[in-house]
């Protein structure tokens, strides 16, 4: 037992150092202020009843990522939640795209934040999608465009949406909250950012009325406190822990113990990005609440065969 505790402590220190590398000292220590027993807003509820099958970037492995057509195909394939990424255009519109440039996924080039919505809408968002290493591009010139977050909510009025804020522009958090509020979608939305200051600003902008997930710093801090047997002292401002199974390529974060500790605090655990059937089955056996995948069709088959 002593040896186990020493090993856990060493891993905890390692996770702290990784957090410092990922988001600076403030990011790594983000969770420690939570030791205070602050009064938390009660409006945001952990989406415990959300489906397990979360389409990463709307199912990037089966259709053009972060597009309406991709979202439709993922839902038809069995996805229950749409995970998507957002940036802000030069004229203040929240658009659904992963990168800060349009180069990788469209026929255009340039930074999203330097383009107007009209300019973004002219691009072919299906231009570069291929499933056969470039032999064919089935979605080119098919009218696939970069959607706005508003359009996603309007197109899929009853579907849970996992929104990741991908940039650190101080005005994006308020813009995202405004879209969610106007769509009356707070109850079916979870917002996340890898960067602690960004997700903190969103929580403030939304007054805690939308469920959020942990930033990288908050995730690492939770894992450190868990290893130190202190996680029960947490009073976290987030309702979900989201991240990779292995952080930084060396730290195994998502384990059965990690999942149990999260559930003891009423937190859900979502893991990204899992595309192989064996990994899906193993993580489901851990008791994770959600799996983000580029292949919601594969996960749907796994879940269909999973014991009830």
In a nutshell, what does this entry contain?
With about 300 residues, the chain is of the alpha/beta class. It is built from ten helices and eleven strands.
Please describe the topology of this protein.
Layout: H1 2-28, E1 53-55, H2 68-77, E2 81-88, E3 94-96, H3 117-121, H4 149-155, E4 161-165, H5 172-182, E5 189-192, H6 196-205, E6 211-212, H7 216-227, E7 240-243, E8 246-247, E9 251-252, H8 256-264, E10 268-271, H9 277-286, E11 290-293, H10 296-305
Parallel strand pairs: 1-2, 1-11, 2-4, 4-5, 5-6, 7-10, 10-11
Antiparallel strand pairs: 2-3, 8-9
Helix pairs in contact: 1-7, 5-6
Q: Any key phrases for this structure?
A:
single chain; about 300 residues; alpha/beta; nine-stranded mixed β-sheet; two-stranded antiparallel sheet; 11 strands; about 35% helix
Overall description:
- There is one protein chain.
- The chain is of the alpha/beta class and 308 residues long.
- α1 (2-28) packs antiparallel against α7 and α5 (172-182) packs across α6.
- The chain has helices at 2-28, 68-77, 117-121, 149-155, 172-182, 196-205, 216-227, 256-264, 277-286, 296-305, and strands spanning 53-55, 81-88, 94-96, 161-165, 189-192, 211-212, 240-243, 246-247, 251-252, 268-271, 290-293.
- α6 links the parallel β5 (189-192) and β6 (211-212).
- The two termini are 35 Å apart.
- The radius of gyration is 19 Å and the shape is globular.
- The model is unreliable at 1-42 (pLDDT under 50).
- Strands 1, 2, 3, 4, 5, 6, 7, 10 and 11 form a nine-stranded mixed β-sheet that branches.
């Amino acid at each position: 037992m002593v040896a186990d505790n020493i090993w856990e402590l060493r891993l905890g220190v390692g996770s702290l150092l990784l957090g410092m590398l990922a988001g600076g000292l403030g990011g790594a220590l983000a969770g420690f202020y939570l030791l205070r027993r602050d009064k938390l807003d009660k409006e945001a509820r952990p989406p415990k009843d959300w489906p397990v099958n979360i389409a990463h970037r709307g199912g990037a492995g089966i259709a053009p990522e972060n597009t309406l057509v991709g979202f439709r195909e993922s839902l038809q394939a069995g996805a229950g939640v749409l995970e998507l990424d957002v940036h802000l255009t030069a004229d203040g519109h929240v658009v659904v795209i992963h990168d800060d440039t349009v180069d990788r996924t469209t026929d255009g080039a340039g930074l999203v934040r330097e383009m107007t919505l009209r300019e973004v809408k002219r691009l072919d968002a299906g231009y570069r999608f291929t499933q056969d290493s470039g032999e064919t591009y089935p979605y080119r010139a098919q009218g696939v465009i970069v959607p706005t977050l508003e359009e996603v909510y309007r197109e899929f009025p009853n579907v849970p949406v996992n929104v990741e804020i991908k940039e650190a522009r101080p005005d994006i958090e308020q813009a995202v909250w405004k879209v969610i509020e106007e769509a009356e979608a707070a109850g079916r939305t979870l917002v996340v950012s890898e960067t602690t200051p960004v997700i903190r600003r969103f929580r403030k902008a939304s007054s805690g009325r939308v469920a959020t997930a942990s930033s990288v710093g908050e995730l690492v801090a939770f894992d450190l406190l868990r290893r130190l047997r202190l996680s029960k002292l947490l009073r976290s401002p987030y309702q979900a822990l989201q991240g990779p199974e292995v952080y930084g390529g060396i730290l195994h974060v998502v384990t059965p113990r990690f999942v149990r500790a999260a559930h003891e605090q009423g937190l859900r655990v979502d893991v990204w990005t899992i595309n192989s059937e064996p990994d899906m089955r193993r993580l489901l056996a851990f008791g994770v609440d959600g799996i983000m995948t580029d292949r919601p069709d594969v996960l749907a088959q796994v879940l269909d065969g999973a014991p009830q």
